[in-house]
Amino acid sequence: MLSVEANERLTRVGPGTPMGELMRRYWVPIRPLAQLLDEDVMQVRILGEDLVLFRTLKGELGLIGDRCAHRRTGLRYGIPDEDGLRCCYHGWLYDLSGQCIETPLEAPESTFKERIKITGYPVQELGGLVWAYLGPAPAPLLPPWDLLVMPNALRQIGVVVLDCNWLQCHENTGDPAHSVYLHGRLFEYVLKKQGKLEERAAEGGVHTLYSRIKSGVGIESLFARATPHGMEKGINYTKALGADRDFTSRHSTVIFPFFTQTGGAGQVRQEFQIRVPIDDTHTYHINYGCYLAPPSVDAPHQDAVPWYDVPLIDENGKPILDYVLAQDMVAWRSQGDITDRSQEKLGRTDEPIIFLRRQLEEQLRIVEDGGDPMNVFRNPAELPEVLHGGAWDESVAAWWTENKVKGAAGSSSDFRSAYHKGHTMDDVDRYGPVTPQVVELMREIEEARAKAAG
Ligand code: FES
Ligand SMILES: [Fe+2]
Question: What is the SS3 assignment for 129?
Fold first, then answer.
């Protein structure tokens, strides 16, 4: 449980709020680049600020305030120009920094424009995403997190706007035990109701729901600890309480402040779930899928990283519940727009969440004291080419295979690498435009590994 004040500190993200100031120390992903290339001018709300993302006729990217300084017309209806974005009403032109550089209907000798500037923020592209920096100058470096830059991989980006605060989404990652019910028992119930349990999840098969249900058996304790870039957490199992053996199941890791990485280095399917605050009560959720191939298999080349909308409701207006991310999103949204943490009753499964909240509070204080929080990089010499995780590692891949069907994350990894056997249906990837290629890639990887094993 948190006091009302502590909850406010962690959830509010507007300018001048403690969390808003922390978030403004980071490059924030705001849209898939491929979407901007299609649309040229896009309205973007981020950290409580209304902005317009655009591409000039020269191909440069800009992010400026949404309202024209003249008579407040929305620049989201602007016209891209060689050097900036032109207001649709009277043609005032703004450059990438938000400086007005033309007022075409004013007198030719007028210097009016020189005194007119609106908000402008730097933007960059990396890994098929457009990133913005809304904080104080100088901007730090944009970190090359592994999934954004690793070679020999397929990628696709799913996006959705959720009507809830960012922290509800992010706390999901401090909650390794929710799988048992949300992705196990609920999944089973939903498929049963649809009359599709046999078709999609035959008993004894590799379907994720069975391993998730099993992962509730034999829990001895939960753990959470800091890592150089955030935190990791998981579950300790013991044979004495009914697990197959004594072991520790390590779950997705957190990259501070708002990334979760599912799958570890060297696994076939990895994903960033990025919880970008739109404002206090809305979140831009990005699931960034990266499907890595080992050196023995060539992943197909992609000119651009394709993107897709992640659906929340079906054709009858009912919430979709039959894939993993949909189940998570229903849980987060139903906690309310900003969940009232002063009313919680936390148990042992929430220990990693408490750790996650403390880490956020710790880093908030560093910013309040004028310092740089975790994962703000300023010296290029300190940044490796690939940050966090790394390339394909056969020993890691083998570990996941050996540890499957043990009632923990190992089996869900196996389920994901078995996409070519029809299991794309069970995760958000089923909507992804690249998924048919991923299925083929996974088949090739399995073939190559079987061959190597003789
Ligand atoms: S309102 Fe934008 S130019 Fe007049
Ligand atoms: Fe989940």
Answer: strand
